[in-house]
Amino acid sequence: MTPIALTIAGSDSSGGAGIQADLKTFAALGVYGASVITALTAQNTQGVTAIHDVPPDFITAQIDAVFDDLDIRAVKIGMLSRVEAIAAVTESLGRHAAQNIVLDPVMVATSGGKLLADNAVAALRTGLMPRALVVTPNLPEAAALLGTTPARSEDEMESQARALMKLGAQAVLIKGGHGSGAESVDLLVEEAGVTRLSARRIATQNTHGTGCTLSSAIAAGLAKGLELASAARAAKDYVTDAIAGADVLKVGHGHGPLHHFYRQWRTP
Q1: Which CATH code of 3.40.1190.20, 3.40.50.300, 3.65.10.10, 2.40.160.20 fits the domain covering 4-248?
Q2: pTM as predicted
């Protein structure tokens, strides 16, 4: 059977993040991608200028259409900017008994644009987190979900991840890309233990869509039958190499995209 993953997220008109990044990642990793669009953004590498939310009933219709026909093996959830969208996704995924849900709590774009309404944070915590196999916040997102300050050490990262698990998630991958030092360290925290995922920190401003790409790469691994820890490790390696190849691309004047197809494209 063809491995199929679904992304439920917002559209990035510049192509570097959101639905576009997710589908590129699925394709690059050998997984067929389906999509449910939750919002349209007017966005480029320099910022988000407008957001048009998709009505909740149409989000539900998209999810029903996909699950009624396709064998979805993993689901990545990204931008859900409003309470109503979160409720629609939560109800629909429950009704379809969706498995292998990767929740990326998208709150702010790389450029700094706000993507989640303040009153939607609680809905994200109570509605979707308990349905997720893994939640993938960066340091500021984890802090916002917990109402605290960002972690400054690996011990604090683990502590915050375990606090998020108490809200219902089976596992948390807390990402250290916003930290400092020569290493970029992510911690996958599960009941059974902690997996430390480390990579060299790459000096580039072309990091637009990094979080979207990592979470969709994890979903791709799960769709292909990998265990969570193996899927997370493979995703970390893929994203690191996509960042390393990003400067080959000349896209926009701000935070450019990763090179999702660094394995497939020949460098000029």
Answers
A1: 3.40.1190.20
A2: 0.94
